[in-house]
Amino acid sequence: MSAPVRIAVLGASGRMGRAVIQAASAAASVRVTAAFDRAGSDVIGADIGPLAGLAAMNLKVRDELADAVDDFDVVVDFTRPEASLAALQVCRSAGKGMVIGTTGFSVVQLDQLAAATHEIPIVRAANFSVGVNVCLKLLEQAARALGDDYDVEIVEAHHRHKVDAPSGTALAMGETVAEALGRELSEVAVYGREGHTGERERPTIGFATVRGGDVVGDHSVMFLGDGERIEIAHRASNRLNFANGAVRAAAWLAGRDAGAYGMREVLGLG
Ligand SMILES: NC(=O)C1=CN([C@@H]2O[C@H](COP(=O)(O)OP(=O)(O)OC[C@H]3O[C@@H](n4cnc5c(N)ncnc54)[C@H](OP(=O)(O)O)[C@@H]3O)[C@@H](O)[C@H]2O)C=CC1
Ligand SMILES: O=C(O)C1=N[C@H](C(=O)O)C[C@H](O)C1
């Protein structure tokens, strides 16, 4: 068996950072060899084991990725876009791969990520759960089969701490459906409705966002026709399913050529 892939966890004290540490410590394919958080954070210097609810691991949270490039093979990033892009520069210079789960990137920021995939391998996914990625395949098939006669509406719900909307997953679902229907999401997306909206325009894809409590992540795509409604939904009940997917992606990514990859490639979904 090959040596475990050494991963650096960004945002180690965050909800996902802690889940990634838990998932990695249960996996033989990877080992957490470096962990980082925001400079000035209370957790700098803390052992990552207790931080993630585990026994001591004798590995301390640091604040400067650039000082640690010899200590890891792949970065696993669940933070905020500005932190992801700062890490991207370090990974480009050091020739390290990245697994990026952060959402909420602007179009300009997405272009920067895309440019970097000519130099380093990056797996980026708005959602690393196997279930959501299977839903994306189902959505593609459903949209192709149902065609233009059904109205598409996407509803997502998340915990009260989430800062971006609609969720990255909802946008990925919208993009998948739009592409299958030959539409450009940026031209047909409607983000919320209020007031006298007029009748629904046929090609639009509507998004609705719910925020509150501790909802881990619910997504539902509705195809609304005359006399029937098809709904493809996913409900996450813990974050380990995202973290396990990210760990799987990190193990898959090590040693790959530069390029833009997604969970479709990692899971072999074609
Ligand atoms: N792709 C997927 O499968 C999933 C993606 N996500 C996405 O992952 C991201 C993180 O989510 P979650 O873990 O819930 O968020 P949290 O707020 O719990 O964690 C974010 C972590 O990143 C750190 N951080 C934030 N900004 C910076 C910065 N500028 N520099 C360095 N560190 C920073 C935070 O530190 P501090 O607390 O000090 O701010 C914190 O440790 C979100 O974009 C979310 O949408 C979430 C779940 C699954
Ligand atoms: O912020 C979260 O929590 C989540 N974010 C991702 C998204 O924006 O789609 C994935 C998951 O739904 C949880």
From TrEMBL:
* Family per record: Belongs to the DapB family.
Residue positions of the active site: 158 (proton donor/acceptor), 162 (proton donor)
As its record notes, the protein acts as a catalyst of: (S)-2,3,4,5-tetrahydrodipicolinate + NAD(+) + H2O = (2S,4S)-4-hydroxy-2,3,4,5-tetrahydrodipicolinate + NADH + H(+); (S)-2,3,4,5-tetrahydrodipicolinate + NADP(+) + H2O = (2S,4S)-4-hydroxy-2,3,4,5-tetrahydrodipicolinate + NADPH + H(+)
Q: Where is the Dihydrodipicolinate reductase C-terminal domain?
A: 131-267
What name does the UniProt record give this protein?
Answer: 4-hydroxy-tetrahydrodipicolinate reductase
Q: Which residues bind NADP(+)?
A: 38
Question: What GO molecular function annotation could you give as one example from this UniProt entry?
Answer: 4-hydroxy-tetrahydrodipicolinate reductase
Its biological purpose: Catalyzes the conversion of 4-hydroxy-tetrahydrodipicolinate (HTPA) to tetrahydrodipicolinate.
The record's listing under CDD domains reads: DHDPR_N
Q: Write out the entry's keywords from A to Z.
A: Amino-acid biosynthesis, Cytoplasm, Diaminopimelate biosynthesis, Lysine biosynthesis, NAD, NADP, Oxidoreductase
Tell me which domain of life the UniProt entry assigns to the organism this sequence originates from: Bacteria
Domain Dihydrodipicolinate reductase N-terminal as annotated: residue spans: 5-128
- Which residues does NAD(+) bind? 11-16, 37, 101-103, 125-128
The biological pathway it contributes to is:
Amino-acid biosynthesis; L-lysine biosynthesis via DAP pathway; (S)-tetrahydrodipicolinate from L-aspartate: step 4/4
The entry describes its oligomerization and partners as: Homotetramer.
| E.C. designation(s) | 1.17.1.8
User: Per UniProt, what is the name of the gene that codes for the protein in this document?
Assistant: dapB
One Pfam family for this entry, by name? DapB_N
Annotated (S)-2,3,4,5-tetrahydrodipicolinate binding sites: 159, 168-169
User: What are the coiled-coil residue ranges?
Assistant: none
InterPro entries noted in UniProt: DapB_C, DapB_N, DapB_N_CS, DHDPR_bac, NAD(P)-bd_dom_sf
The record's subcellular location field reads: Cytoplasm
UniProt cross-references to PANTHER family, sorted A to Z? 4-HYDROXY-TETRAHYDRODIPICOLINATE REDUCTASE 1, CHLOROPLASTIC-RELATED (PTHR20836:SF0), DIHYDRODIPICOLINATE REDUCTASE (PTHR20836)
